[in-house]
Specification:
2 helices, 7% strand
Length: 130
C-alpha cells in the first residue's frame, strides 16, 4: 500500500519567476511587432501618396485636353467637377499640395503637383520626387 504524505496545502497561483518569464516573452513580441507596424504604416502612406498624385496628374491632363490650357488651381478642378474633392496629402495630413506652374509664371496654370512634405520616405526618395 502506498501512503501519501501530506506536507502542506498546495497553493494555487503563479510564482514571481513565472510572471517575470511571461513579461519577458511579451516584451520580446512587442519589440518585434512595433517596428513592423510602423513600417506598414509608412508603406501605406507612400502608396496613398502615389495614388493621389496619379489621380491629380491625370485630372490635370484631362483638363488640359478638354480646355487647351492648364487649370489655375486645384480648387478650379473641384469647382468644374473634374474631381469631387482635393485629396489629403497622407504625409502632411493637409489638403495643400505644391503646385508646379509652367515656366514658374504665376499667371500660368498648374501643370504638375507634388507633396509639400519634407524629408525622405523609407525608400530613400524625397517626398517631393514622387
Amino acid at each position: 500500500m502506498a501512503y501519501r504524505i501530506k506536507i502542506g496545502k498546495m497553493k494555487k497561483g503563479f510564482t514571481f519567476i513565472e510572471l517575470i518569464a511571461v513579461m519577458v516573452i511579451i516584451s520580446l513580441l512587442v519589440s518585434i511587432a512595433v517596428p513592423r507596424y510602423h513600417y506598414a504604416i509608412e508603406r501605406a502612406k507612400i502608396s496613398t501618396l502615389k495614388q493621389d498624385l496619379f489621380i491629380l496628374r491625370k485630372v490635370i491632363d484631362e483638363y488640359y485636353s478638354d480646355k487647351g490650357f492648364y487649370p489655375k488651381s486645384l480648387e478650379s478642378l473641384q469647382e468644374e467637377s473634374y474631381i469631387r474633392s482635393i485629396p489629403i496629402d497622407p504625409t502632411t495630413k493637409d489638403r495643400l499640395w505644391e503646385e508646379i506652374r509652367d515656366d514658374n509664371d504665376i499667371n500660368s496654370g498648374i501643370k504638375d503637383v507634388r507633396s509639400r512634405a519634407q524629408g525622405k520616405s523609407y525608400e530613400g526618395i524625397s517626398y517631393a520626387d514622387y
